[in-house]
């Protein structure tokens, strides 16, 4: 034990420590990359009307993860009696 403390680590041990450091750095780099790419950004301006995934689930490429409603233009169909039609106006 004394000789080990006096002489320090062997070259093989130092190489193993260095390999462990490089492995840990690679794990951190991968985690940072995954975190950076974890944000879901919609090209539409609107709001999420349906969230089809939950925390911890894997996303399937063939199914939508979320449904985003575009609020730039909306189309509404309503039933209005002829007597009340004069009360309605179209506004932007």
Radius of gyration: 30 Å
The percent of residues in helical segments reads 25-40%
Beta percentage is: 5-15%
Euclidean distance between termini CA atoms: 83 Å
Number of domains: 1
Quaternary form? single chain
Question: Strand sequence of the main sheet, in spatial order?
Answer: 1-2
Number of helices in the DSSP assignment: 2
- Which descriptor suits the 3D outline? rod-shaped
Secondary-structure content class: alpha+beta
What order do the SSEs take from the amino end to the carboxyl end, as H and E? HHEE
Give unreliable regions as ranges. Answer: none
Largest sheet: 2 strands, antiparallel
> Count of DSSP E strands?
2
Overall pLDDT metric: 85
Q: How is this fold's topology laid out?
A:
Blueprint lengths: L1 H6 L3 H26 L9 E6 L14 E5 L22
Antiparallel strand pairs: 1-2
Summary, kept brief:
This protein has 92 residues and is an alpha+beta fold. It contains 2 helices and 2 strands.
Describe what this molecule looks like in 3D.
The protein is rod-shaped. It has helices at 2-7, 11-36, and strands at residues 46-51, 66-70. A two-stranded antiparallel sheet has the order 1-2. It has 2 helices and 2 strands; from the N terminus they run H-H-E-E. By secondary structure, it is an alpha+beta fold. The longest helix has 26 residues, at 11-36.
